[in-house]
Amino acid sequence: MVDNRKPKSQVKGAASTVTRLHEAYDHLLFPAETVLVKCDRPAHPLINKTYNFERVYGPAESQQVVFGDVCPLLTSLLDGYNVCILAYGQTGCGKSYTMLGPHSKEACIPPWGPHSDLGIMPRAAGELFRLISENPSKSLKVDVSIVEVYNNDILDLLAKERRTEVSGPKRDAPTSKAAKREVSPPTRQPVHSAEDFIALAAGSLQLRAQLATQVHARSSRSHLIITATLTTASPCDSPADRQSPGPPLEGRPVWGRASPGSPGAQRPVGQVHAKLQLVDLAGSECVGVSGVTGSALRETSFINRSLAALADVLGALSERRGHIPYRNSQLTHFLQDVLGGDAKLLVILCVSPCRTHVAETLRCLGFGARVRQVQRGQAGGGSVAPRKPR
Ligand SMILES: Nc1ncnc2c1ncn2[C@@H]1O[C@H](COP(=O)(O)OP(=O)(O)OP(=O)(O)O)[C@@H](O)[C@H]1O
Fold this sequence. Notes:
Shape: globular
Bound molecules: adenosine-5'-triphosphate
Structural class: alpha+beta
Order of helices and strands: EEEEEHEHHEEEHEHEEEHEHHHHEH
CATH architecture: 3-Layer(aba) Sandwich
Radius of gyration: 20 Å
CATH superfamily: Kinesin motor domain
Number of strands: 15
Number of helices: 11
Largest sheet: 10 strands, mixed
Helix content: 25-40%
């Protein structure tokens, strides 16, 4: 069982530079930005393994500290760069806590307070609107879409029909091929303040698929993707526009900056300034430990398969293969622009300090190590610029 009273560790990979921390458990040591896994299970092939990340957070570090490292990405967003922040890890290890803060079906997002535990999403919403108010000349507008990837279907959590259907209307990944088939993109709702943004997200969270398992009483059964699209009335003034003008596609949904050759984002010229994506992945799960059966077992199988597909895509990108298997799952298809494109991508790995979960922890750290090897902007998938140094 994951001890929910204990704060979880957060390990951030694939970006950022700040280093801090000293914390030790019996098998997990965190010297600076390194995670050292020591385990006395002799049969395990990966004992005494060291992983390096840009930053490692100990259990005692607050949400505010974590957001302190995320915050500069919002300045990049205002500068016109697409940004994606993605939480990955085993079920019950703190992904939703990190991204959203403590929440429940009854009280989705707790009120703001100087020492509150608010997660990245509400803090990012506050910072985004603060930056917009400081830059009135940019005339930026914000639209939000919220989808969940459940059992390999993309479900639109903002669609009106979603309120009356159990499974919600399905949407396709917003890529150029999808656009050619005239599928409907996810609903995009304008928001005018951080409060609007948070209220919209809070309403959607109540619709998100959840289940009690032996590991986590409120386990998310879907990947949640919150997208904030910044548009400007004035034509093409962002770095994105200057680097990759791309052909105009009239009447197509606005999906951020497209990379030449990428089957990804399409946008009308002069509209999109940048896109922020906040991704709270469903947790990887060992069926023997979570004890799920029936339809929950099916959900687990979809979750694990989509996470494996994500790892495959990152593996292919890191090896710079010609073919990147984005289409093996709706999750990777949906995130194609972010994974293979030139968005600023920040992956936060959430790991358990419990010895019983060491195998999952090693898997998670291995995933993070793979993410760090990806030289984005150079492999297949049609990106244009090498990863920008931070
Ligand atoms: N850093 C932390 N400090 C305090 N409590 C935490 C921390 N991280 C997680 N928790 C608590 O642990 C529990 C599980 O966390 P959370 O729901 O975020 O896990 P998860 O990784 O999203 O799980 P799943 O993938 O199953 O949805 C929650 O009750 C959460 O409030």
